[in-house]
Amino acid sequence: MTGSDEHSSTSRRTFLTGVGGAAVTAALAGCSSSGDTTTDTTTSGTTSGTTQETTSGSQEFPVTITQGQMPTTLDPQDHRSTPTDNVVLHTYEGLLSRTRTGQMQAQLATDWERVEDGRVRFQIRDGPTFHSGNDLTPADVAYSINRIVDPDVGINSPQSDQLAGVTGAEVVDGERAVDVLSDGLNPIVFSLFATYGDVMEQAWVEENSADYVSTHMNGTGPFEFSDYEQGVQVVLERFDDYWQDPADVSELTFNAASESSTRVNQLLAGETDVIVNVPPQDISRVQNGENTRVDAVSSSRVIYNGMRYDVEPFDSVEFRQAMNYAVDMQSIIESVLDTFGDATSQPTLEGFVGFNEELSPYPYDPDQAEQLVEDSGYAGAEIELHSPVGRYLKDVEIAQAVVNQINELPNVSASLNQREFASLAGELTDGDITTSPHWYLIGWGNATFDASQTLIPLLTSDGALTSYENDEFDSLIEQAQSESDTEQRREYLEQANAHANEQAPWIFLNRQYSVYGVSQRVSWRARRDERIDAYAMSQT
Amino acid sequence: MSFARFLSKRILQGILVIWGVVTVVFLLRYLTPGNPVSFIAPLDAGPELRARIAAELGLNQPIYVQYWNYLTGVVQGDFGQSYIVAKGLPVSEVVFGRLPATVEMAVAASVVAIVLSIPLGVISATNRHEPSDYFATTFSLVGISTPNFWLGIMLVLVMAIQLEQFASGLPWPVSMVGMLSPPTSGMARYQGSPVLFYDGLRYLLSGNLQPMVRWFQHMALPAITLGTYFTALITRLTRSGMLDELGQSYVQALRAKGLPETRTRYRHVLKNTLIPIITVLGLQLGTLIGGAVITESVFDWPGLGTLLIDAINRRDWTVIQGSLIVIGCGFVLINILVDALYAYVNPQVVND
After folding, report:
1. CB contact, 8 Å: B298 with chain A?
2. What residue in A sits closest to B180 (Cα-Cα)?
3. CB under 8 A, 24+ apart: contacts of A420-425
4. Where is this region: Disordered (chain A) (predicted)?
5. Considering the domain boundaries, does residue A283 fall inside one?
6. Which of A227, A264, B222, B278 could make a disulfide contact with A235, Cβ separation 3.0–4.6 Å?
7. What is the CATH number of the domain that holds A342?
8. At A176, which CATH number?
9. Of the candidates A73, A211, A266, which has its C-beta nearest B185's C-beta?
10. Mutate to test the interface with B, among A5, A7, A153 (most CBs of B within 10 A)
């Protein structure tokens, strides 16, 4: 609403801000070097001298965020979409959370410990209240977890697989604590709860209809629900009784524009403050805008080319390795992605538990590739890459570059099949490897920052989207998942990644970047997990 | 055949067409590759969750049972529930909630078209082979060949973004240019709620001009974008229709009778030219409602078009079906109305 309400005054203000642009930029640079600010809202103090409108106390600081899509629902446990998460996570909180760079931290739980295999205990914070005015209780926490994992408690939550292995939760007698039960050891249970498992108020959910719960919100977070118009906007307001410091942002509006050029135009015209997915061709427009800047961060999404191990010519390790040597990832990152991407060497991304630092990306070596194709016995192979169009940052352009580079090998001919994402995903996710294309481009986001949540679904024999089968790999993962010693477990995962690097079930492509366009009036830094955290925003 | 009988025959035909639309739209889901469950379920969902989703939505039943359930639902105005776009909400609520915004844009585009095209066509026809005629024919050629999405983006870039910067760089009538330079996109709002024409009118009657101005600012660019093709089309129709009529013998008779030329042109010739144009206008309104999809995306306009695109992108089948059925019904309804109007004006049609 920042732009359209008082249009003429906005243009005056943006003009004034433009004049002070240099000062603001300097201030931002100062902010960015001050380190992690996810839970630290005091940064506004360091820059308050630059703008005269700011007054101390609960000032008015409305912010608008424009995503590509509107949330599918406001029920935090009945969806699996990032645009929805970005809205509901301002209102609902989980037991643990993550910093901007992915480290685990306390949220509604103050302490967490493993009691025994398959049983962990969370101490629930005393003090947070729901926006309805009621206090947070351990019973609410247990109910919320059960609502996700148990279809008999209200809904068929699509998040049941996100809390993998969790079978239920119960309140611990006489203590302000909740025990979470898992089937087996579940070594990553804390990691899961740092990303998933939003806490709702049991009485509120039970008293209201499903319709109401999916169009209203009542959590413990820094913003409370104000208005929802389906397909148009969601408006949240600062919750003054938040258990931490109240947010700087006074009113938070979410809307959506599916066209990236429309989002960029809205940002340039001052109608919104943060936009998602600025396409590389528009980056300079945003960077050169009087009142706008680009903020990019490597995300938790890996882009790769799966090659089915069970079909010719991809059943040959040499052939798969050859494909990796044939692709010049560095040039793709520079020319296609405008440097917004990192080359990968393994399925797991840097900074995740289980990332193997000793591995490096396959170098670009077409001669080696040609030789390996000869060795594989599949010289003259014709292969076809299935790629979605418009699902990931420059997906089809990356696929085109890969195909062209492989085509330069004299003994392989590659072609591209542009696919609609939904039908490609349908073939990949039906749990049957034989219906998948032989060679495909896809991306996988893993917000748990743990290797297992990539390796298990994508590369184990019975993974939901697997393209690979190998007993050695499976046993490494199995050992990791039943290992309670974190160091030993990390070791197994690193070995699994080394195995993947060597056996090359994928062409390892890039780590995707999240590229945001941000108004100069907002001080904020992008997060790795694709979440937009308005609580960390302050006025410049 | 009486008028009433003619009308009831048309309505019956309309109902048959709608039934056809519902059937085709229902079958589309089965003809397109991919199982609906795999679009609804998360990528890594296990078979158990998939089975639960299928059971919950009745997708595990035989197709004729699903068809029968869907058909009986539609007859009662129940289009099912949205799976994805607005999870859990009834499709009818979602679709009909978006309808007014789209109808309003289509009507605004028609108004732009009518206001521009008929005078242009008349001027062009009455000044044949003169500069004004060349201007009008060139305009209509360009208008017909310009793609909507490109025009929309260009209008935003020039009018909203360039002019905005232009305004803030200039010391004088900054506020005035600022007011004229339109917002890039979205729907007008006043005190937090969206402003449609009706709301603007309501405020206007109570003495508040501002919401109406805002409505106009937000509506202008989309209406021009959507109306341009249409303007060009009607200009051509008016021009050729007018030229046809001017060659008729009754025009000679009127002129011979000594009727002033302007009276001949506007009272008689234009009136006769307008009859087929009204038919085209009516039918085009249906096309506009269906065809606003791209313009709505460019202008982030929360209408049926953006809903349909969103639903297609995310494979929310019930919403796709609901939107298509409503658009189809719109067409049928407008056709019946145009037919009825025509039959009323020209009773000969009834007997054909």
Report:
1. yes
2. A8
3. A420/A388, A420/A389, A421/A388, A421/A389, A421/A390, A421/A391, A422/B34, A422/B39, A422/B313, A422/B314, A422/B315, A423/B32, A423/B33, A423/B34, A424/A386, A424/A388, A425/A388, A425/B38, A425/B39, A425/B43
4. 31-62
5. no
6. A227
7. 3.10.105.10
8. 3.90.76.10
9. A266
10. A7
**How far apart are alpha carbons A366 and A528 in whole angstroms?**
33
Instruction: Tell which of A259, A272, A276, A462 to mutate to test the B interface (max B CBs under 10 Å).
Output: A259
From chain B, the residues in CB contact with A83 under 8 A are none
Q: What is the domain range of residue A398?
A: 299-514
- Contacts of residue A420, Cβ cutoff 8 Å, sequence gap at least 6: A388, A389
Residue A58 pLDDT class (50, 70, 90 cuts): low
A308 and A422 fall within a common domain: yes
Contacts of A133 (CB under 8 A, 6+ apart): none
Long-range residue pairs from A46-53, CB within 8 A, at least 24 positions apart, any chain:
A47/A523, A47/A538, A47/A539, A47/A540, A48/A539, A50/A20, A50/A23, A50/A24, A50/A540, A51/A17, A51/A20, A51/A24, A51/A521, A51/A539, A51/A540
Q: Structural domain tally of chain A?
A: 2
**Residues A87 and A185 reside in one and the same domain:** yes
Claim to verify: residue A214 and residue A304 sit in the same structural domain: no
Q: Are A144 and A159 in contact (CB under 8 A)?
A: no
A353 and A499 together in one domain: yes
Residue A343: Cβ-neighbour burial (10 angstroms; 0-12, 13-18, 19+): middle
**Is A306 part of any domain?**
yes
Provide the H-helix boundaries in chain B: 3-31, 36-40, 47-56, 63-75, 91-126, 131-145, 148-155, 163-169, 174-180, 197-205, 210-246, 249-256, 261-263, 270-291, 293-298, 304-313, 317-345, 348-351
Residue A478 inside a domain? The answer is: yes
β-strands A439-445, A506-519 pairing: unpaired
In a domain, A529, yes or no: no
Position with higher pLDDT, A188 vs B164: A188
pLDDT of residue B291: 67
Asked whether the beta carbons of residue B185 and residue A457 sit closer than 8 angstroms, the reply is: no
pTM of the model: 0.84
Length in residues, chain B: 352
Measure B36 CA to nearest chain A CA, in Å.
9
DSSP designation for A129: B
Crossing angle for the helix pair A21-32 and A7-19, to the nearest 10 degrees: 70
CA-nearest residue to A260 within chain B is B298
- The Cα–Cα gap between B243 and B254 comes to 16
Distances in Å between the Cα of A370 and the Cα atoms of A81, A363, A413, A414 are 42, 14, 12, 14
Quick one: A351 and A468 in the same domain?
Answer: yes
Q: What is the mean pLDDT of each run of 10 residues along chain B (352 residues)?
A: 84 93 89 75 75 82 89 90 85 90 90 89 87 89 87 84 57 44 76 82 86 84 89 89 86 86 82 81 79 84 88 87 91 86 74 60
Contact call for residues A343 and A361 (beta carbons, < 8 A): yes
> Of A219, A242, A268, at which residue does a domain stop?
A219
Tokens 């379920």 — which residue? B41
ipTM exceeds 0.85, yes or no: no
How many Å lie between the alpha carbon of B139 and the closest alpha carbon of chain A?
Answer: 27
Q: How many CB pairs under 8 A join A and B?
A: 172
Q: Which of A171, A196, A219 is the last residue of a domain?
A: A219
Domain shared by A501 and A385, yes or no: yes
For residues B270 and B264, give the distance between their C-alpha atoms in angstroms, rounded to a whole number.
9
**Which is more confident, A514 or A422?**
A514
End-to-end CA distance of chain A: 19
Instruction: With CB atoms and an 8 Å threshold, state whether B38 touches A230.
Output: no
Q: Is B121 helix (H, G, I), strand (E, B) or coil?
A: helix
Cα distance from A223 to chain B (closest Cα, Å)? 18
